[in-house]
Amino acid sequence: MKTYLVTGGAGFIGSNFIHYMIKKYDDIFIVNLDKLTYSGNLNNLKDIEKGSRYAFVKGDITDSELVKSLFEIYPIDYVVNFAAESHVDRSIDNPTEFINTNIVGTFVLLESAKSAWLKGEKWEEGKKFIQISTDEVYGSLGETGYFSETTPLDPRSPYSASKSSADLLVKSYFDTYRMPINITRCSNNYGPYQFPEKLIPLMINNCLTGKCLPVYGDGKNVRDWIYVEDHCRAIDLVVNKGRVGEVYNIGGGNERTNIDIVKTIIATLRMLLEENDVRKAFISEEKIKFVKDRKGHDRRYAIDSTKISNELGWKPVTSFDEGMKKTVKWYLDNSKWLEEITSGSYKDYYVKMYADREKEEAV
Ligand code: NAD
Ligand code: DAU
User: Is 124 noted as a catalytic residue in this protein?
Assistant: First the structure.
């Protein structure tokens, strides 16, 4: 029986990872430590809560007493650190929590794992710390080229700078103390349970509620999209087979401009909605509005996944078309989940983030 400390497991990728792991293995125990910030949602884990192989702890990864106590209570073998402030626009607006959670929080987890796992000069067998990082640490690409694991770090937003800082701390625990670690750097995820501040669920929600579709700048920024389950499978492989001390890039191999993504969402919704659904009337490309650009907006991300493919035999299996259909269908089938989120403080967020932006259209 292996025990996982999953942090941020009530968020988008963390909850998908917990579903994936509990379904795949019947001999693991997962402790989910989550602060339940605006993006953490226990509704993401409703069917798992009752299981005997899972415990939820509401708490903050920066709380060293709490984290230490978890290492005393549970025989933790793996830390998988998803917990983070994850939205670039929020980091531009106010970076404070990004520094606390993403940097200080990672440091607290590293220190607690080190105290629990390092016996004199020797690390206990079978332990590992996995840091879930992002391709954004590499900065921005021009029209060609790919990020590999040796691409120099060049973060350009407070979010990506905080994630890079955390990566460097994790690396330093390997270099200095020989702590068993891996770092994964993945491209843009999409799929069930993603908070509707991110491009794909935001556009789905805006389409369904008749709002305009705010595309930043010229809409030609490129992201490399990966279906979240493919990411979870990659993390599982890294946890169980990744070479200690290594970084693994994970990419979907689906480069798309933002404007293409928005048009695909419109077409997919129109295809999936019933003929007589009244919402169909207002879901159209006429709703697209080019708005003021994100500050420091990275132009293009694209991942070279050769290393994880060669070493661990991983490749994404969900095509972009299939993943988009599944995702749009999930949001249609889970309208209550979406409504519960968008009816609360999300409304204030949306006004704060978009009111001025929409006044100032892109030129
Ligand atoms: P998310 O915002 O949906 O979830 C973050 C979770 O962390 C939430 O449940 C939140 O409550 C929790 N959390 C935040 N601060 C915390 C704290 N101080 N203590 C404990 N819990 C806290 O984010 P996500 O999109 O699921 O991203 C998860 C991780 O994956 C992040 O580390 C992110 O940097 C990384 N990542 C995300 C993507 C992506 O496309 N979404 C791609 C690559 C890497
Ligand atoms: O690349 C991995 C990263 O992907 C993760 O590390 C981050 O946690 C995750 O949030 C995501 O970052 P992005 O900034 O790429 O994702 P976001 O969904 O915010 O934006 C995707 C693109 O769409 C980006 O070019 C900005 C643009 N965009 C976004 C929103 C929310 C719009 O044009 N309009 C919008 O309303």
Answer: no
User: pLDDT over 90 for what percent of the chain?
Assistant: 96
Q: Exposure of 224 by Cβ count < 10 A (0-12 exposed, 13-18 middle, 19+ buried)? A: buried
Q: How far is the CA of 211 from the centre of ligand 1 (A)?
A: 27
CA 313 to centroid of ligand 1, rounded, Å: 26
Give residue for tokens 């290594």. Answer: 246
Are 160 and 305 in contact by the 8 Å Cβ rule? The answer is no
pTM as predicted: 0.98
Which ligand number lies closest to the CA of residue 41?
1
CATH dotted code for 2-194+225-254+296-318: 3.40.50.720
C-alpha pair distances (Å), 168 with each of 174, 310, 337? 10, 25, 36
Ligand 1, atom 44, lies closest to the CA of 134
The answer to whether the CB of 87 is under 6 A from ligand 2 is yes
Catalytic residue, from 34, 85, 136, 255: name it: 136
Higher pLDDT pick, 101 / 52: 101
For the chain, the domains span: 2-194+225-254+296-318
- Of all ligands present, the nearest one to the C-alpha of 213 is 2
Mean pLDDT of the chain: 97
**Residue 304, Ramachandran bin (φ over 0: left; ψ between -120 and 50: alpha; else beta):** beta
CA atoms within 13 A on the CB side of 352: 11
* Beta-bridge partners for 4: 30, 78
Look at residues 156, 153, 317 and name the one whose alpha carbon lies nearest to residue 226.
Answer: 317
Q: Is the CB of 140 under 6 A from ligand 2?
A: no
pLDDT in tens, 148-192: 999 999 999 999 999 999 999 999 999 999 999 999 999 999 999
User: Atom 34 in ligand 2: which residue has the minimum CA distance?
Assistant: 215
Give the distance (Å) from ligand 2 centre to CA of residue 121: 43
